[in-house]
Amino acid sequence: MRSLQFTSESSSNGMIERDFTVGDVPGVLWSPASGADRAPLVLMGHGGGTHKKHPSMTGRADRFVNGCGFHVAVIDAPGHGDRPRSAQDEADIAELRKAQAAGEPQGPIVVPFNARLAELAVPEWQATLDALQQLPEIGADGPVGYCGIAMGTALGLPLVAAEPRIKAAILGMMWPDALVEKAKQITVPIEFVLQWDDELMPREACLALFDAFASKEKTLHANAGKHFDLPRFEADSAARFLARHLGRTAVAAQA
Amino acid sequence: MRSLQFTSESSSNGMIERDFTVGDVPGVLWSPASGADRAPLVLMGHGGGTHKKHPSMTGRADRFVNGCGFHVAVIDAPGHGDRPRSAQDEADIAELRKAQAAGEPQGPIVVPFNARLAELAVPEWQATLDALQQLPEIGADGPVGYCGIAMGTALGLPLVAAEPRIKAAILGMMWPDALVEKAKQITVPIEFVLQWDDELMPREACLALFDAFASKEKTLHANAGKHFDLPRFEADSAARFLARHLGRTAVAAQA
Asked: Domain range spanning residue B167?
């Protein structure tokens, strides 16, 4: 097993932030500054073109750590954040920029691009989870959740399907094409978000992906607005959902 | 203006319960036993075949009164609860029972039946609201919300469309046929629930109704399960939604 190396530690806003590596994959672990007892772990997947400390990650980490007492870990996806891009990454990104500039559909590029990244990311996540569970404040038998939207779903949904340690997941906003068969294998509770007026992903595509989960408990939250307008109250809802299924109370998530 | 007559008063579970009539329409008003200052008012519409004190009404009243400090009022719909049924009500209900027994679609019966009741109910609700706003603990200028699912939507959506005093509404689970044009006139924030595996109302019908609202803020909550399996956490979500838009904090609604 590749072990976890902490590379820096700081503290702010009630959270201890520790950068780490597992092999050559860089990550960050946020934990309650109060020095929690053993607590549930939430893995978060960042969006396409962003990184492990993007505001969408730090904002949710605040709610999950300070609101629920969880540990939260994010790793940079292949070709993202502090990681080098491969020649294939560069080619895929160039093709995506071209489609964006031309106002052409992005699905035909994003779907195979993200499916290729998922092949790399799932074993990286599993090695990271193995290593994180060696830490005494997390432990090998505690509940684990996952939260990732858009590319965080393209890479995370296959992880949830492959990984029985994950007991609940927040997913959403992705084409079903590469994911439907894996969604059919998933039975843990799912909270799935989509944007009703999403200009990138057709509503029907996201509804089809939500429909595919075999989970007995699954909830769709669809909000008016475009792709990047996901309302902030959905982060509070995600905290409550994880608290319900991982066994904590969402203290600060009541707004 | 028809005035409000209180006919009985009792107290339990932190709430004062006052039965009332406005003209020949019977209703119930639940208020915080702590003797609230002036507080927002939530009107609730009950489901088909039930009444103003059905458990789905008392359960939500508990969350809205004890959780948010609101006043909550429900009136019996025409032909429901303590109100007499007309010959037309009896005929519609007989036809509905026949369709249910035969396992035939209920929409073709429920849609015109409920549209007829809505014609009666909207002015009754408006007279009730006029009378309730004469009470010093409610007042004429305080915010008003609405919450009603299924028949509570068939009767309540036209009320929300007609009534500028209503500032936010929880609706859901109804065919769009008689309601789409009125939904297009509605611009206040909407939280809309549907059951993903509803055996009575096709998913596509409910999605079409949600789509029709002109509201800039509208949220769809779709949960796995059949028509009567709406999860209890949706009542907590409704409390938080109303607290956000009517200006209170959902103290007890954090689970």
From this structure: 4-246
Q: Check: pTM over 0.90? Answer yes or no.
A: yes
> What are B216's two structure tokens?
């800039």
Q: What is the CATH number of the domain that holds B12?
A: 3.40.50.1820
Residue A252 lies in a domain: no
B255 within domain boundaries: no
Subunit contact B224:A219, Cβ cutoff 8 A: yes
Are B224 and A231 a contacting pair at CB < 8 A?
no
Report the distance separating Cα B100 and Cα B94, nearest Å: 10
**In the structure encoding, which two tokens stand for residue B191, read together?**
């939280």
pLDDT in tens, chain B (255 residues): 788 999 999 999 899 999 999 999 999 999 999 875 789 999 999 999 999 999 999 999 999 999 999 999 999 999 999 999 999 999 999 999 999 999 999 999 999 999 999 999 999 999 999 999 999 999 999 999 999 999 999 999 999 999 999 999 999 999 999 999 999 999 999 999 999 999 999 999 999 999 999 999 999 999 999 999 999 999 999 999 999 999 876 554 333
Q: Which residue has the tokens 């709610």?
A: A63
Residues of chain B with C-beta less than 8 angstroms from the C-beta of A250:
254-255
Residue B251, in any domain of the structure: no
In sequence order, the 6+-apart residues with CB closer than 8 A to the CB of A141 are none
Cβ-based neighbour number of residue B25 at 10 Å: 21
Q: Are A151 and A173 in contact (CB under 8 A)?
A: no
Number of domains into which chain A is organized:
1
Chain A residues near residue B217 by CB distance under 8 angstroms: 223-224, 231
Q: Which residues of B72-103 are buried (b: 16+ CB within 10 A; e: fewer)?
A: bbbbbbbbbbebeeeeebeebbeebeebeeee
Whether A253 is in a domain gets the answer no
